[in-house]
Amino acid sequence: MRDAAFFEAPVPATARVVARPRANAQTGYFAGLVALVTGSESGIGRETARCLCQQGAAVVLNGRNAEQLSQTRQEFEAAGYAVVSCVADVTDYAACEALIATAIQAFGQLDILITNASISQRAYFADMAPDVFRQVLDSNVYGTVYPLKAALPYLTRTRGSVTFISSISALNGMPSGSAYCAGKAAVANLAHTLRLELAHTGIHFGVVHIGFTQNDPNKRVLDAAGLPVPIAHRPPRWQKSQTEVARIILRHIRRRRQRTVISALGQLIVLVHTYFPRLGDWIVLTTIRRLRHFYE
Ligand SMILES: NC(=O)c1ccc[n+]([C@@H]2O[C@H](COP(=O)([O-])OP(=O)(O)OC[C@H]3O[C@@H](n4cnc5c(N)ncnc54)[C@H](OP(=O)(O)O)[C@@H]3O)[C@@H](O)[C@H]2O)c1
């Protein structure tokens, strides 16, 4: 039985993680644990996977692009990390079963699931083809539900930890982000429901609302017709680095937090949305008029 000191915050006895030691167990906060990060061939997911490896976890990498995924895996192997990879579209349940099977075959257990894979958008609702709305929504909702559903029996065995990656744009809604915001808000609510419904399992269910973050230069989101386009303008000084965000995600897991809202802007949105919702809407409507490049 892993020592409760593993967690920074006190946790119920039922929430301790049982770790099966691996032959090549490394040292570090997450040593002896197995983590799966969806959408980890690039971006924040890759940096989160890297931080987990650096802190001793064995990690399952995932994405849809075999070449990019293989490149990331090779980079991690060269650094001496314990990793395997599995090409899987997380909106396909059979592919998610294969993804979880990869984790179990390689490492024998699963302790941490981070559902990070996501497609974003840069399109107003009125212009969006219905299928594009569905693609964005599916990647955020079923891309969260399916890996979790396939992983649940194994996470129950380890009394593991599940983190849904959401966004600060889910806290208040954002013009030109309808399907994305709806999906990110849905998973926040899902975490709350599962925390209650599965309390007896001792599994940790948490949500991290990420704010503006530096992106990979080749990151693309969908336009109204479903074509990949660069994301809208984000002021560089408002952006956290991917490593900073990854470290916050790991702290969230260690403390088994229910919700982490990243960045001062995120905290401000929570405050305004909770106590001054009309003011929040006025600010957004004003920025749409004056700072269109944030949205288009
Ligand atoms: N960057 C930000 O400013 C920001 C802000 C708020 C929230 N977030 C959230 O943080 C997370 C990571 O964002 P990011 O900026 O790192 O995005 P990213 O660079 O676009 O990375 C997303 C990853 O998910 C993978 N992916 C997408 N759809 C998938 C699917 N159906 N199955 C498997 N993999 C899939 C992508 O690879 P393939 O497309 O090749 O499969 C990619 O590796 C997302 O959940 C995002 O919503 C980011």
TrEMBL record:
Domain of life: Bacteria
InterPro entries: KR_dom, NAD(P)-bd_dom_sf, Sc_DH/Rdtase_CS, SDR_fam
SUPFAM superfamilies: NAD(P)-binding Rossmann-fold domains (SSF51735)
Any Pfam family the entry gives: adh_short
Transmembrane segments: none
SMART domains per record: PKS_KR
Coiled coil regions, renumbered to chain: none
Keyword terms: Oxidoreductase, Plasmid
Span of domain Ketoreductase: 33-213
Family classification: Belongs to the short-chain dehydrogenases/reductases (SDR) family.
Protein name per UniProt: SDR family oxidoreductase
UniProt organism field: Hymenobacter volaticus
Upper classification of the organism: Bacteria, Pseudomonadati, Bacteroidota, Cytophagia, Cytophagales
